[in-house]
Design brief:
single chain, about 0% strand
């Protein structure tokens, strides 16, 4: 590979190198706190490299990797860089909120940080992939460390969650790979752009769905495989148990970074590889149906949960449904003049969802570290015991509901508007109804914190790094709610790059 090609993948290389550096230093450094600080500070390198690539693309446009074993498999554009920023930011917050929690792992703290970094490397590669084999490899690189992280507490629930994630992730990967094989058999190529060219030249006849039963089966299997990664119903069966049993910072990482990477590859694959009008209209219907199912199942089942991590798991399933509204709008191809409202709506929503969910999980971690419980009833009276923690959690939950002036409100307005512009007004109405339903279980937590008697009078105060994560994410929820233009412009610029893929 040339130096230019190495520069294009330098954010991923620096992230993987940071993981290896931590493992090597762990052999000679006894102060684990130093390694944790190094893990956070070391994220500056991939961030700076990503910013440099973004600025460089202003003059050159998308840059493919042209030589070496990665030739013609990766594309560095502003779409992929948007997700690199999102993954790096998420990892930074996860590390800030992990300090006190990671000490429970005692001897394995460095391995914890290294596994998070390696999984994040796979997620960043996933956003750049333009070829099906590299998509599969990147997906496995991101998924395998997650299975180990889910089992990191080494108790019965954590071990069960790790095993469940490993097994079901393997099943979903097999479905995805089989679907890719069928698409390859129909088109003769694993390159997404070549698949699009092949399908554009096929004359579909006979009224067959997607023009071919083989292609239909391949697309269905790919949707099922990706559905598992983004926790969309009916492929969400793993999420509640894994979210409940995994260490809480790992749960937060799964709910934000893993979902973002999943939607990155979904948009890339279905926007680039299947652009034919006959195909796009049909898979718009598929994603619209998945959106309705995910929103409905997630919100209704969340109502009866008593564990806040399990409740947030079903909340994540519901938000996958809201995001799928944007994907369906992409597929439906909004009329001329409406811009890239579909893909940019998904990107904006993912950015907003990241700060909302991370704020919520930061508060949950701070509280559960002191109370030793993840039950909603353990939050009783937190408005008096820990006003800052309770305020951040309440604000995050209100934003997840979609109440102004929060980023959750702006994200839903934008993504529902994209659905209306694409002729899917009925889907936007279903989303609004589900948002109203979600208010019940979100506000139930707020009620417990402010209207139920406290179980103890002992005040709670998080450590400084966790306090930074709390206040930083809460400020972002408010800032992007009041002034969403910066994030919107970033999302629009990234979405426009899909046209050039």
């Amino acid at each position: 590979m040339t130096l230019g090609d190495l520069y294009l993948i330098s954010p991923e290389l620096s992230l993987a190198s940071l993981a290896l550096l931590l493992l090597l230093l762990d052999l000679v450094v006894s102060r684990k706190g130093f390694l944790a600080a190094l893990a956070v500070v070391g994220l500056v390198v991939p961030l700076v490299l990503s910013v440099a690539l973004w600025l460089g693309l202003d003059s050159t446009g998308p840059e493919p990797v042209n030589t070496g074993v990665l030739a013609n498999t990766l594309l560095v554009d502003k779409f992929s860089l948007f997700f690199k920023f999102l993954v790096i930011g998420t990892v930074a917050v996860i590390f800030l909120m992990s300090g006190e929690y990671a000490r429970k792992f005692q001897r394995f703290q460095t391995e914890y940080y290294a596994l998070v970094l390696l999984s994040a490397t796979g997620m960043m590669l996933l956003a750049s992939t333009i070829e099906m084999i590299s998509i599969y490899i990147s997906l496995e690189l991101s998924a395998l460390p997650l299975a180990a992280l889910a089992a990191f507490r080494r108790d019965s629930r954590s071990s069960e969650s790790g095993m469940k994630l490993l097994v079901l992730s393997g099943v979903s990967s097999a479905l995805l790979l089989y679907g890719m094989v069928l698409v390859y058999g129909f088109t003769g190529s694993t390159m997404l752009s070549d698949v699009a060219v092949k399908l554009d030249g096929v004359v579909f006849s006979g009224g067959q769905p997607f023009g071919s039963y083989a292609l239909l089966l391949g697309i269905v299997l790919m949707v099922a495989g990706f559905g598992f990664k983004i926790t969309a119903a009916p492929f969400q069966m793993w999420a509640p148990d894994v979210y409940e049993g995994a260490p809480t910072p790992v749960t937060a990482f799964l709910s934000v970074a893993s979902k973002a990477a999943g939607f990155a590859v979904v948009l890339r694959v279905f926007y680039v590889a299947f652009p034919a009008e006959a195909l796009s209209l049909q898979w718009a219907t598929v994603f619209a149906a998945l959106a309705v199912l995910s929103m409905t199942v997630g919100n209704l089942v969340a109502i009866v949960q008593t564990n806040i991590k399990r409740m947030l798991a079903y909340s994540t399933i519901a938000h996958a449904g809201y995001l799928l509204i944007g994907v369906a709008a992409v597929a439906a191809r909004a009329p001329a003049g409406s811009g890239d409202a579909g893909p940019s709506g998904v990107l904006f929503y993912l950015g907003g969802f990241a700060v909302m969910n991370l704020a919520a999980f930061s508060a949950v971690i701070a509280i559960s570290n002191r109370t030793g419980s993840d039950l909603i009833e353990s939050l009783a009276g937190m408005g008096r015991r820990a006003p800052v923690l309770a305020g951040v959690l309440a604000f995050a939950l209100v934003s997840l509901t979609g109440v102004p002036p929060t980023v959750g409100f702006m994200a839903k307005v934008y993504i529902f508007g994209a659905a209306v512009n694409a002729g899917l007004a009925w889907l936007a109405i279903v989303g609004v109804v589900n948002s109203v339903v979600s208010a019940y279980y979100y506000l139930r937590v707020v009620k417990a914190m402010y209207m139920s008697p406290a179980l103890s009078d002992e005040p709670l105060a998080p450590e400084p790094p966790l306090r930074i994560a709390l206040l930083g994410t809460a400020a972002a929820v408010l800032l992007f709610g009041i002034y969403p233009k910066w994030l919107l412009d970033l999302a629009l610029t990234a979405a426009q790059a899909l046209h050039l893929s």
